């Protein structure tokens, strides 16, 4: 579900984590049930950007993998530990903040061949449903908008646990992944290799490494 803020966090002190558990049914068959302790996590959260990563990976020239991340983003997120179906997320990313470690490549990505940041400055994900799948796993479905094109995607989410850090903040961790076909969002630029295949793969893996801090209540 993602949760974020740009406030700098401190070193985390060890603390027991809470998370989903599996309990046996009357017949002895294991059935996934939500840990009641998750109810305490219900509420609004924000991403701690210095300790999180909104990234991607893509095959380059058929033989290597290029990885990048976005540094500038904001979110509106809510987690319901009792009824995960009520959880929701909105993530707005400034595409001009892309960083792959190579300035020339980043400039190409924000240009008209790819993101066209001048015309479409933001990439947006808005959740439409959330399902608890057992253990530490959730699935969030939502609409992803890139270059003005909106299409549905599904995120596989793993809950990593929660702690109270050295500053007294409640912190929860999630990992999320999904794979998309970039051409479905109008990102069709490519170059063909002499030996066959493409310079840049059409499949893009999106990765969300999230450290979330509980948002302060609004007065």
TrEMBL record:
Domain Lipid/polyisoprenoid-binding YceI-like: 44-213
SUPFAM superfamilies given in the database record: YceI-like
Coiled-coil residues: none
InterPro entries attached to this UniProt entry: Lipid/polyisoprenoid-bd_YceI, TTHA0802/YceI-like_sf
Region (Disordered): 1-26
Membership in a protein family: Belongs to the UPF0312 family.
Protein name from the UniProt record: YceI family protein
Native organism: Streptomyces himalayensis subsp. himalayensis
